[in-house]
Amino acid sequence: MSDAKIDVTITKDFWIGKYEVTQKEYEEIMGANPAKFKQAGNMAPVETVSWLDAMEFCRKLTEREQQNGTLPEGWIYHLPTEAQWDYASRAGSKTAYSFGDDRSRLGEFAWFEDNGGGMTHSVGRKKPNEWGLHDVHGNVWEWCRDWFGDLSGGKDPEGAASGTFRVTRGGCWKNNAAFCRSVSRNWTPPAERNNILGFRVALVPSGTVAGSSDQ
Predict the structure, then answer these.
(1) Taking the CB of residue 38, how many other CB atoms lie within 10 A of it?
(2) pTM for this one?
(3) Is 211 part of a structural domain of the chain?
(4) CA distances from 189 to 78, 131, 179, 196, 207 (A)
(5) In 38-96, which residue ranges form alpha helices assigned H by DSSP?
(6) How many domains in the chain?
(7) With contact defined as beta carbons under 8 Å apart, do 123 and 43 qualify?
(8) 148 belongs to a structural domain
(9) Is pLDDT at 160 greater than 90 in this prediction?
(10) Rounded to the nearest 5°, which phi and psi values hold at 22?
């Protein structure tokens, strides 16, 4: 993780969304669509959502699937830790981007400054990384569970114990190629909403989540 090459070991099982959460999915769970780019269509990633909104989405999705009997016991939906997000987005790569170091190929995988046209785009239209995840570069910055702080290595890190900002990763439709690199990190107040902020969900064992709901 990061230009400093922090070594992290992931030991706890998790699943992560193939796509960023879409406007359609968000409205189905939350009852409203806050996105500014509704013209992009309901399969575009939801944006203008805060960290708190994303956490509430995960809570409600967990509750619904538990009630429907479609969620295995002991598992919950949550935002990924920064380490989980980094691990999944890189898909085993150690290069500038999940697909390699060639910046000229970024347009094959991402909506960003050069091709974004000033807005988001439907998820899944660009090539996935090696593990089948789409839009890990560009489209919207994605909220992570962690407070923003100095990166810590080791097993299954969960970031700083407290802080002012939450971590966002991946770059967005308005960023240049440098901001869409695998190492790029951003920090954002957890209550902030704007049209560059979205998220994807992780499915994690409930016993691995401790204290992450603190605002």
Answers:
(1) 11
(2) 0.94
(3) no
(4) 18, 30, 19, 13, 26
(5) 51-68, 82-90
(6) 1
(7) yes
(8) yes
(9) no
(10) -90, 165
